[in-house]
Amino acid sequence: MANRAGSSSSRLETLHEEDDYDSYGAESGWVEAKTHCDHLPSLSSDLTHIPIPGTPCNRCQHPSENWLCLSCKVVLCSRFVNKHMLEHYQQTTHSIALSFSDLSAWCFACDSYLDAQLIQQLQPFHETAYILKFGEAPPFRSVESSRVEDKPAMDVPSSS
Ligand SMILES: [Zn+2]
Ligand SMILES: [Zn+2]
Ligand SMILES: [Zn+2]
Fold first, then answer.
1. 110 CA distance to ligand 3 centroid (A)?
2. Which residue among 76, 120, 133, 160 has the highest number of C-beta atoms inside a 10 angstrom radius?
3. pLDDT grade for 45, boundaries at 50, 70 and 90
4. CATH number where 99 lies
5. Separation of 160 CA from ligand 2 center, angstroms?
6. pLDDT of 37
């Protein structure tokens, strides 16, 4: 549990987040997801090319339930397998990853889940991953859905 090496000095210095003090006491296994995280600016801005959910771990080839680094989009296995995503965070400080197994987002620096459906910067990743995984848009998106249209609708890939 307590094996964080160095680099954790800025944790818990934000005093305005009174809404998460009780989530640390939850020993029941369910920890409330944060709706704010200081590490969001490190996210990749290219949301259109993310690996498919079945992509194996980049290091050990573990085939499923891997994590996607939302900074560099590498796919690595979980702490329950060979901890390659955790290692990646320790080596790169890319702190936010998206689970391909349940599409939850985790911030290693915050040591907490993030609510990918409420955090605006995470929504596109969650949505894209959801579509890749299930073949349809996630059910929660109903309000701002008109925004997708101004993409240059997929011009025909080199028709010959
Ligand atoms: Zn691995
Ligand atoms: Zn990364
Ligand atoms: Zn964070």
1. 4
2. 76
3. confident
4. 3.30.40.10
5. 37
6. 94
